Amino acid sequence: SCSLSITVHVFSKLIMEEASPPLRCFSESHSSELFSDDGVQTVTSREQVNSNKMIKWMILPYFFRPTLLREQHYHYLKKGLRHLSDAYECLDASRPWLCYWILHSLELLEEPVPAAVASDVCQFLARCQSPTGGFSGGPCQHAHLAPTYAAVNALCILGTEEAYKVINREKLLDFLYSVKQPDGSFVMHVGGEVDVRSAYCAASVASLTNIITPTLFDGTHNWILSCQNWEGGLGGVPGLEAHGGYTFCGTAALVILGKEHMLDLKTLLRWVTSRQMRFEGGFQGRCNKLVDGCYSFWQAGLLPLLHRALFKEGDSTLSVSSWMFERKALQEYILLCCQNPGGGLLDKPGKSRDFYHTCYCLSGLSIAQHFGNKDLHNELILGRDENRLAPTHPVYNICPEKVAQAIEHFHRLPVPVQTESTPSTMDQS
Amino acid sequence: MFQISSQISFADYNLFDLLLNHKVLCSASLDSFPALKSYVDKIAARPKIKALLECENFKKLPINGNGAVSIMSSVEEISNSVAEDLEEDGVEEENTVEEAEMEYEEPVKGGYIFYRDRKEWADLEPVPQDDGPNPVVKIAYSEKFTDVFDMFRALLQNDEKSERAFALTTEAIDLNAANYTVWHYRRVLLQALDKDLREEMKYITAIIEDQPKNYQVWHHRRMVVEWLNDPSEELQFVAEILSQDAKNYHAWQHRQWVMQEYKLWDGELEYVEELLEEDVRNNSAWNQRHFVINHTSGYSDSSILDREVQYTLKQIKKAPHNESAWNYLNGILQDGGLSSFPGLLEQVTELQDTCSSPYLTAFLVDLYEDALETNSSSYDQQEMFNKALELCKFLAEEKDTIRREYWNYVSRSLQNTYGSGDPVSASSDPPPPPSSSQLPDMEPSDP
């Protein structure tokens, strides 16, 4: 560890001279950010110390400007959109997710999708649509809110007439009513589990496709609010530990419903900003857990949402140039520690690449690079200019133009009338 | 529960085989060793092992001291080279290890018959998956996977409610435990066939041990517990899972559901303290602490709040850089107000020499801010204001620079709210009047 410190110190001196602008992780004070275990070792501290060691080794080779491995990621994504190995059998009930993760990654990289491929995706997703409404994980499976969210997002990314037409809006509304619970929450599928992801999935697809009726989200905002806990973040259901994924889902859902101001924004802001790791630069999902590249979106993505929420409340002290997290540090973590040299991104060094992490690492990178909106836009690109990704919408996590285009398209159509009234499904197996 | 880590290994198969042999020689031999007995029961309940133990050829195997290899090779995936080694040996000799393995191995491993070829399934036409002519995200399923799911689709299409359908769901789950459609169907069958739910509990216990981070398995367990209306095994089971991963989110969710649904609050605070003894940084345990107290005594009773504050300060002293403890301290005092709690400022300030950390500093900022917000007469307002700004600057520039943007914002907010017009410049970002162009486009209804 002593020789490692010396090595890092020597390299850091080199970097200070060579690199412009210098990387945070090579600054003199960076090693003071290492986790201190107070001499009390527990499972948590041992894992954190090991994680730091692993990451230290990652940053050594970077004398030059960190580079996003565009070519490699593109080939990984292009292949995956067509073929996946049998290692993906475990995602056989999440194939619309695979479509979304890959298509979104491609749009962030500003790589076009050939028209034929786009059409094939539309036809596949059409086969995933359930006759009773909503989309399922694969042909002949039952509808589920998660693949429904993914399918609608994927179709909106494609943004063609063919894509929009795949969605049966009337049936989709029926499906949403069929999973709605009396307490305002939603089950993920008929006979399935409740957690705050479902509210986000429902709000996202309903708002994009313009099927929100006066009663669809009755009670939903109150249920989501009850998920905010003593830590300031949100848990999956009321009572649970605050967690980045669920906090994002709950907050984004409330933004869609126009009720984000009902959260305790101050404690939420404190919680999420505290989730950025002082040494690694990336975000953890929960207090005292390890950094993970995917939280680059789930956690960092909250800052644009909170910025806007506070702004709407009349806050005049907000920054005009940055989201409230260390944008450079996050970009460093993603570019230096989360890229697989053969393409694809990942959780942390030592983990395997996958399309989920590719999607959310790139999404987080985009969030860190872009502040503001089209009128007031501030870009902070770490490394080469070619690292620049397309901006992403912090509520839906597809490109803002695609959001606008979809909303415009579907708002020309009338809100469907609920055709079936289905009773609460909690009794069903 | 396993010997080496959270996953089953050769060591477990070895011990399992040894203990099974004990039971053959003396059936009651494990009765006075409940932990060993439970260990054997749990492993024996694992679906493939259960099937193996019921298999005729296995039952005929002589006890040769190396049964572990037999068990392992049949029920678990093994590397290609190991498989080849086992297959190569086939010399007819009495009681060799290899022969013993080969003897029973054939019908289970080497003799796997696809469902489409089984005569008991001949009446059912498999339904291939319709991915369309130009598939996307096409998975290169193994032949076994395709075979099982082709048959599953056929059952689903015919809405068949039979024992063989039930058995097939077990296979399908084994191939992809995240297929919620299969789980749903299994539940339909459990009810339609009036299956033994106690057996189902054993099954789901084994599956969860194997895949504790899967949503469907926990939901399934919840359904079975509800049907049986029997939560009696739940807390112990969850504790078992948490002993392998003390932060498993699904486990905690299940635990909280059981406790609320069946009002099982007794002993939980003690359990939480045990976990915090083991790992004071376990944030899930701190959350559970809050959960229990919230649902039992509540925090409004001052003797409870006192107890909690003292407990937390004690933990802080042990490990001052443990963020969970600081967050808990803050969390429980939010309602009453940090600055209103008697003696807290003194106690925390005292810690600064020995237990300094960015969390302590942040806590002081929170305390000062609370004093300002409540316009507390116990404190000099100007002093609170100045100190708060000073600490924000200290955090932004030195002690917590990763959150520089945040601390500068807090500083500006304080100045804006409590400043007297001549603020300490704590930020490099003077706020201009907001205009709508600064508003990130987010709302669907905003053009």
Notes on the protein architecture:
The complex is a heterodimer of chains A (429) and B (447). By secondary structure, chain A is mainly alpha-helical. Chain A has 17 helices and three strands. In chain A, helix 4 runs parallel beside helix 6 (145-158), helix 4 (95-108) runs parallel beside helix 16 (355-369) and helix 15 runs antiparallel to helix 16. Among the domains of chain B are: 10-60, no CATH class; 115-195, Serine Threonine Protein Phosphatase 5, Tetratricopeptide repeat (Alpha Horseshoe), CATH 1.25.40; 337-418, no CATH class. Helix content of chain B is 62%, strand content 0%. Chain B is elongated, with a radius of gyration of 31 Å. Chain B starts with 9 loop residues before the first helix and ends in a 29-residue tail after the last helix. At the A-B interface, helix 2, helix 3, strand 1, helix 4 and helix 5 of A face strand 1, helix 8, helix 10, helix 12 and helix 14 of B. Strand 1 (83-84) of chain A pairs parallel with strand 1 of chain B. Chain B: GO terms for molecular function: CAAX-protein geranylgeranyltransferase activity; protein farnesyltransferase activity.
The gist of it:
The complex is a heterodimer of chains A (429) and B (447). With 429 residues, chain A is mainly alpha-helical.
Number of strands of chain A: 3
The N- and C-terminal alpha carbons of chain B lie at a distance of 57 Å
Global morphology of chain B: elongated
- The ordered H/E elements of chain B are HHHHHHHEHHHHHHHHHHHHHHH
Organism (chain B): Sinocyclocheilus rhinocerous
Region (Disordered) (chain B): 418-447
EC number (chain B): 2.5.1.58, 2.5.1.59
Subunit structure (chain B): Heterodimer of FNTA and FNTB (farnesyltransferase). Heterodimer of FNTA and PGGT1B (geranylgeranyltransferase).
